[in-house]
């Protein structure tokens, strides 16, 4: 496939986006992922610098390692509750991402999953989170608001957030 395309539409019926399938498609602005997709492979969209239009459908169960690494065009992201695991370094170095919502249902955030996202200002963590990998939010200098459910305040999950790079003052109970 031509790496100079600006839009990719994944055919309905595809269940998996293979490892590295669209890696370094540097001009890609938009990708349409159908509801048939359940897995996004390792490095599937890594280094797609201009990718700005991304909707992860609620059919996706797993997002692989480095899946969207370096996608600096992403500004806002919602991860649906169907995703059980966000892989290591999955959204690291998405430097322009400002807002992140992780929906209830997501259980695991991998190591360095959102590290080095210098513009990230706010994150919403659901009650369903049971594991947060090492330094998941490392070097997110502008992260000033992390909303966590009251049920998780003072628990291991809250402690994991702090040890992953989130300032204690940023945690907000909702």
Write up what this structure looks like.
The strands form 3 sheets. This protein has a 6-stranded parallel beta sheet with strand order 2-4-6-8-10-12. The protein has a 5-stranded parallel beta sheet with strand order 7-9-11-13-14, with no helix packed on it. It has a 3-stranded parallel beta sheet with strand order 1-3-5, with no helix packed on it. The protein has 174 residues and is mostly beta strands. It has one helix at residues 156-163, and strands at 7-9, 16-17, 30-32, 39-40, 53-54, 62-63, 76-79, 85-86, 99-102, 108-109, 122-124, 131-132, 145-148, 171-173. The protein has one domain: Alpha-Beta Horseshoe (Leucine-rich repeat, LRR (right-handed beta-alpha superhelix)), CATH 3.80.10.10.
Summarize the structure.
5% of the residues lie in helices and 22% in strands.
Protein topology:
Blueprint: E1 7-9, E2 16-17, E3 30-32, E4 39-40, E5 53-54, E6 62-63, E7 76-79, E8 85-86, E9 99-102, E10 108-109, E11 122-124, E12 131-132, E13 145-148, H1 156-163, E14 171-173
Parallel strand pairs: 1-3, 2-4, 3-5, 4-6, 6-8, 7-9, 8-10, 9-11, 10-12, 11-13, 13-14
